[in-house]
């Protein structure tokens, strides 16, 4: 009963503050596929690890995150063959409250040093019935990424995850909007269970979207409570003081995760951090630079035009990324796929980043299928279909991008393009 009342209250608040949490609906979306909700299996004990996911920490460590209903040891045991745990590491656990909801224990254990490109078997909280395994990313190119945003938890999401599961990728990059919990905290738990089969096997590196904010004026003033507790990323390692923006190296790629829903003014911590981070990049070690944001800086869909997270952030930060010769900027937010040419300040520019919107993971809000007409020449490919993309960085000069539409067989790529790195283009030397 208390739970029911709580949900009614939360729902009323959600409606009242829908504008504030960023659900700007200014176009007709086609019907979405049905929502799915993954409950805790009946045979789970209160100390069974669930919602396991992993993320890289520095060049040779991995963070293991999981949740139990009641307290269990914050320990991960691991080794390179099944059931033979030659190493173990201990970490910490925490929980959070959100209105009437209290989370389970959320664990955070960093393991390593680990060998590169190696399969490890592991178990959490010494639970013998649930063994997991993951593969560490390679130390050198090639490396294969999956990029997908705005996942949510619908039948479309399931279809996207099935396709991702069939690709042999090393690391997943997610430009924001994960669970679409929108204040209903049990949906974060459902999302954790939905993605566990994939997110426990490969590092999932994420940044936040508007659906992660979950701030309610006067009632829950702290933003990102669930996101920060459940999806902790390696920010300290890159000199950031916020889980909302950070960077890391993966093989020959420097990946920058920006925060669209935190301060990005020229005197903000994020701006100064970005400046410093770009200044430290060694193009000999990481010939490629990718950046991820949630709200797209270039977008010809009618959805999400004119938002300050897109326009002001672009105004403040575009020059920094351009001058650093960032190769590709990925965004989500718009529930469709769009690929631009290299563009700076609105104009095609051979030394500027390629901009790609990949907010088509499959969430319950449906597709954004109206576009501005006529299509500007800088927009090369645009389509409102759910899907995901694979990006294989082959060597220091070449990478191949393949967008997969869910409706197609996974072997079919609907938009394939080769990119060459800006660091290898003599005309783009600074
Ligand atoms: C467990 O792994 C270690 C180190 O790889 C190896 O020496 C040992 O033989 C293994 N034990 C079993 C029972 O497989
Ligand atoms: C996801 O799709 C697969 C394959 O179609 C199906 O077996 C599975 O039951 C689906 N999962 C959910 C949660 O709907
Ligand atoms: C990089 O990969 C591309 C595409 O496979 C290939 O054509 C090129 O020769 C490679 N460059 C080097 C230096 O191996
Ligand atoms: Fe969004």
Report on the architecture of this protein.
It is a single chain. With 430 residues, the chain is α+β, with helices and mostly antiparallel strands. It has 2 domains: 50-135, Purple acid phosphatase-like, N-terminal (Immunoglobulin-like, Sandwich), CATH 2.60.40.380; 143-428, Metallo-dependent phosphatases (Purple Acid Phosphatase, chain A, domain 2, 4-Layer Sandwich), CATH 3.60.21.10. 17% of the residues lie in helices and 28% in strands. It has helices at 2-16, 155-165, 186-199, 225-230, 269-279, 308-323; strands at 50-57, 61-68, 75-79, 87-90, 92-94, 97-98, 101-102, 105-111, 119-124, 132-135, 143-147, 171-174, 204-206, 246-250, 253-257, 288-292, 328-331, 337-344, 347-348, 354-358, 379-383, 387-393, 398-405, 415-420. The strands form 5 sheets. Strands 14, 15, 16, 17, 18, 19, 20 and 21 form an 8-stranded mixed sheet that branches. Strand 22 and strand 23 (398-405) form a beta hairpin. It is globular. The termini are far apart. Mean pLDDT is 93; it is low at 1-30. Bound molecules: 2-acetamido-2-deoxy-beta-D-glucopyranose (3 copies) and fe (ii) ion (FE2). One 2-acetamido-2-deoxy-beta-D-glucopyranose binds at residues 36, 158, 162. Its EC number is 3.1.3.2. It holds the Pfam family Metallophos. This is Purple acid phosphatase.
Keywords:
430 residues; alpha+beta; Immunoglobulin-like; Purple Acid Phosphatase, chain A, domain 2; eight-stranded mixed sheet; six-stranded mixed sheet; 6 helices; 24 strands; 28% strand; globular; disordered N terminus; binds 2-acetamido-2-deoxy-beta-D-glucopyranose; binds fe (ii) ion; MPP_PAP; metal ion binding; hydrolase; PAPs_N
């Amino acid at each position: 009963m208390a739970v029911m009342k709580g949900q009614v209250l939360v729902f009323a608040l959600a409606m009242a503050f829908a504008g504030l949490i960023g659900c700007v609906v200014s176009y007709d979306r086609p019907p979405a596929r049905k929502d799915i909700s993954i409950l805790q299996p009946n045979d789970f004990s209160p100390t069974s690890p669930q919602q396991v996911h992993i993320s890289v920490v520095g060049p040779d460590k991995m963070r293991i995150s999981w949740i139990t209903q009641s307290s269990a040891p914050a320990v991960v045991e691991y080794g390179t063959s099944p059931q033979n745990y030659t190493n173990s590491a201990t970490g910490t656990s925490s929980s959070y409250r959100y209105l009437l909801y209290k989370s389970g224990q959320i664990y955070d254990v960093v393991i390593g040093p680990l060998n590169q490109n190696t399969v490890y078997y592991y178990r959490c909280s010494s639970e013998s019935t649930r063994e997991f395994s993951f593969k560490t990313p390679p130390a050198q190119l090639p490396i294969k990424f999956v990029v997908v945003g705005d996942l949510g938890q619908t039948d479309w999401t399931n279809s996207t995850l099935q396709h991702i599961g069939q690709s042999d990728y090393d690391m997943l990059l997610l430009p924001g909007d994960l669970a679409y919990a929108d204040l209903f905290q049990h949906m974060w738990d459902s999302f954790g269970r939905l993605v566990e089969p994939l997110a426990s096997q490969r590092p999932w590196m994420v940044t936040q979207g508007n659906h992660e904010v979950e701030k309610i004026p006067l009632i829950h003033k702290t933003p990102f409570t669930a996101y920060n507790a459940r999806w902790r990323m390696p920010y300290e390692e890159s000199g950031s003081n916020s889980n909302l923006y950070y960077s890391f190296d993966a093989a020959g790629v420097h990946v920058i995760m920006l925060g669209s829903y935190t301060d990005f003014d020229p005197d903000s911590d994020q701006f100064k951090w970005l400046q410093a981070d770009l200044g430290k990049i060694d193009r000999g070690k990481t010939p490629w630079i990718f950046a991820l944001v949630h709200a797209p800086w270039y977008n010809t869909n009618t959805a999400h035009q004119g938002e300050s997270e897109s326009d002001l952030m672009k105004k403040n930060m575009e020059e920094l990324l351009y001058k650093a010769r960032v190769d590709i900027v990925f965004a989500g937010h718009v529930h469709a796929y769009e690929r631009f040419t290299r563009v700076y300040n609105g104009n095609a520019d051979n030394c500027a980043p390629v901009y790609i919107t990949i907010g088509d993971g499959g969430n319950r809000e449906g597709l954004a299928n109206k576009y501005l007409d006529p299509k500007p020449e800088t927009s090369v490919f645009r389509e409102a279909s759910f899907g995901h993309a694979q990006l294989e960085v082959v060597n220091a000069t070449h990478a191949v991008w393949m967008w997969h539409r869910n409706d197609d067989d996974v072997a079919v790529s609907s938009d394939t393009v080769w990119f060459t790195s800006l660091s290898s283009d003599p005309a783009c030397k600074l």
